[in-house]
UniProtKB/TrEMBL annotation:
Gene3D superfamilies: Winged helix-like DNA-binding domain superfamily/Winged helix DNA-binding domain
Domain of life where this protein originates: Bacteria
Ranges where the HTH marR-type domain occurs: 30-166
GO molecular function: DNA binding; DNA-binding transcription factor activity; transition metal ion binding
Organism name: Intrasporangium chromatireducens Q5-1
A matching Pfam family: MarR
Record SMART domains: HTH_DTXR, HTH_MARR
Classification via InterPro entries: HTH_MarR-typ, Iron_dep_repressor, MarR/SlyA-like, Tscrpt_reg_MarR-type_CS, WH-like_DNA-bd_sf, WH_DNA-bd_sf
Transmembrane segments: none
Keywords from the named record: DNA-binding, Transcription, Transcription regulation
GO biological process annotation, one example: response to stress
Annotated protein name in UniProt: MarR family transcriptional regulator
Length: 171
């Protein structure tokens, strides 16, 4: 699967042009960081579009896929909703929305926690497990094995982004 294209290819890199503008306006010290962050955000858009296009035929978004895989990797195929939010590093409302959609599709069930009436346990259904497997196979083939970078570049990118995430307190 190719990179999502614009209606017409651009003649120049707009981020490089913006960097030149930053320098021209006296912000040379911030220009490299602006270009890096803007490039990262654009790369995120490109990667997310590829992932979402791959998952769309299976009826799940990347956010819902993440929930399915977290449950798939758990020993029992179930986790408390609060733990899902914590492990995915998202707001509980985002998990509630994803679980609502997954439950409507028959991919998970929701039950009261046996020890805490305020908590909910989310459990992967057999259909949810099958969807997670199909989605993973598609993502591995169409996106993850072909990220658009060399193996060396991928390893360097993961290392660099890992440092950025660590410095930000992500782990």
């Amino acid at each position: 699967m190719g990179t999502p294209a614009l209606a017409a290819a651009l003649d120049a890199d707009p981020i490089a042009t913006a960097r030149e503008q930053w320098v021209g306006h006296g912000w040379a010290e911030a220009a490299p960081g602006m270009a890096a962050i803007t490039s990262l955000m654009r790369a995120h858009q490109i990667a997310l579009a590829r992932v979402e296009a791959t998952l769309k035929p299976l009826g799940v978004s990347f956010a819902r896929y993440e929930v399915l895989m977290l449950l798939r990797f758990s020993k029992r195929g179930s986790l408390p909703m609060k733990l899902i939010a914590s492990r995915l590093q998202v707001h509980p409302t985002s998990v509630t929305n994803a679980v609502d959609r997954l439950e409507s599709a028959g991919l998970v069930t929701r039950e009261a926690h046996p020890d805490d009436r305020r908590a909910l346990i989310i459990t992967l259904t057999p259909e949810g497990r099958a969807t997670a497997e199909k989605a993973t196979a598609a993502l591995n083939t169409e996106v993850f094995a072909q990220p658009g970078l060399s193996t060396r570049d991928v390893e360097q990118l993961v290392e660099i982004l890992g440092r950025m995430r660590h410095r930000a307190g992500d782990f």
